[in-house]
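Recap for those who missed Tuesday's class. We walked through two folding examples back to back. For each one, the amino acid string is listed first and its predicted structure tokens come directly after. Nothing is annotated here on purpose, so try labeling regions yourself before you check the end of the notes.
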Amino acid sequence: MADIFHDFPIKASAERVFDAVSMPAGIDEWWTKKSSGDPRKGEEYELWFGPKYDWRAKVMESIPAAHFELKMVRADPDWMGTRVGFRLEARGEITLVRFYHAGWPFENEHWRISSYCWSMYLRVLRRYLEYGEHVEYEQRLQV
């Protein structure tokens, strides 16, 4: 199995970071085009990226200001069953984000592209929280 990891600081409280990675309004600012769901363990999220990418994920972990994890239950075949998660550590005025996308079947071209895309999306997350920057969905991989 292959995994993707990105650790980085954000100048925001762990509560604000948690909301941005677990609440649909926050997720739509940096990752999805449109999402819906409730950040409670066992609930399902709709993650919509366009007509060909209408995905679903199940909440596997939801500890406010500490840990949020989704398991992909309807997605591209390479993403099926993978887990996307955020472990948060409050450190004064910053939050250390320990991001993971775990459980890939193997290191293939899609895994490599996704690793790059995650770094770009996570950069948008950081800029959203630190500066209130809004980036249109179609531009997120170009900023």
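Example two. Treat it independently of the first, because the proteins are unrelated.
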Amino acid sequence: MKINTIVSSMAFALAMILASTGCRHQPVGITHIPGPTPPPVSEENPSLNTMPYTPPANPTEGMGIETSTNWDLSNYDQDRAALAASTIHFAYDSAVIKDSDQANLQTVAQALAADPNVKLLIEGNCDERGTEEYNRSLGERRALAAREALATLGVDPSRVRTISYGKDKPADPGHDESAWSKNRRDDFVLCHPKAGV
């Protein structure tokens, strides 16, 4: 009986020591994605959890990935209409350019070849699913994939800038696959030098 009490006491003491020390988890740092910080999630004030994310007034500033270019976007007029029909679309959670979009990339490459003074802005976009950080990263990968594909078609990468809007600029505000498939895209914007610059 005395041995059972000693063994039980030792087992209890060991269990308490293990419970108090346990596995100590070191927090993992958050990867910073360029751009504005969305509102914090708060357990004390749940209303903050539903606050909409508002992009900055100048959405191209500080967002996306900066490529090795030496041209300033503010010195160019943006022509969104010229290549609007050449938008390319992506499968869910993918940055792989579809074979069906190769003709659109050829059109973009031809537009740049036709005028050596124009530059190109590629805007990577995602659907609304996923976190802000994940979608910003996926949008960057999509824009960079198009930039690399254009380079294989003879476009000088120094004429191309990329930016990721993540899920902030949906083409279709719907909440179903039909809308999401339109929002997973790269938009191409021709940039013409402003007069006198």
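Answers for example two:
Confidence is low (pLDDT under 50) at residues 23-68.
The helical segments are 2-21, 102-114, 132-152, 177-183.
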